[in-house]
Amino acid sequence: MRKKISAVIVGIGVTCVSLFSTASAGAHGYTDAPTSRQRFCANGTVQDCGEIQWEPQSVEGPKGFPSHGPADGTLCAGGNSRFAELDDPRGGQWPATDLTAGQPTTFRWRLTARHATTDFRYYLTNDHYDPTRPLTRADLEPEPFLTVPYGGRIPDATVTHQGTIPAGRTGKQLILSVWTIADTGNAFYACSDVRLS
């Protein structure tokens, strides 16, 4: 009888651990305005995306960008090799959202699991950016053009920010959005290809 009770307790423990693991690994967040690469993969606009098509919310990597964080060339995947398709520039052919530099723009995150937040930061590529090559820190302006501090608060499931992309920029560019988590060592990353006029 004791063996049966022990087996049941062990079974329940394993089930609980599995459920908790699945819940914590299953959801976080991504940008859908401007549309991110992971969103384009999830909605089927872009094919051959690998696992990211089922997990657009899971692009999580080390925080501390730009001094720390993912390695150059792996920024769009947050340094996560499971989602390396996001770092493939695809010959510069990722779909791009048309935006006007110097005009107010809406930036929106969809959070499938909400976390205590340090801030949201948005970086724009510089004049040296080549959309046919993987993104590196040298391709980005050194400072974000928009920072939204959160001071450890937990954001809503949909987060919208208003910001202005620097005037005078034109052509194919990329916005790297970084959601920094306050109570873990990680951040979430999203790359949105844009066409500026």
Automatic annotation (TrEMBL):
InterPro entries per record: Cellulose/chitin-bd_N, GlcNAc_Chitin_IntDeg, Ig_E-set
Keywords assigned: Signal
Top-rank taxon, per record: Bacteria
Gene3D superfamilies linked to this entry: chitin-binding protein cbp21
Record has Protein transport as a keyword: no
Keyword Metal-binding in annotation: no
One matching Pfam family: LPMO_10
Residue stretches making up the Chitin-binding type-4 domain: 28-194
Secretion signal, residue range per the UniProt entry: 1-27
Region: Disordered, residue numbers: 57-99
Protein name per its UniProtKB record: Chitin-binding protein
Organism of origin: Streptomyces caatingaensis
Lineage: Bacteria, Bacillati, Actinomycetota, Actinomycetes, Kitasatosporales
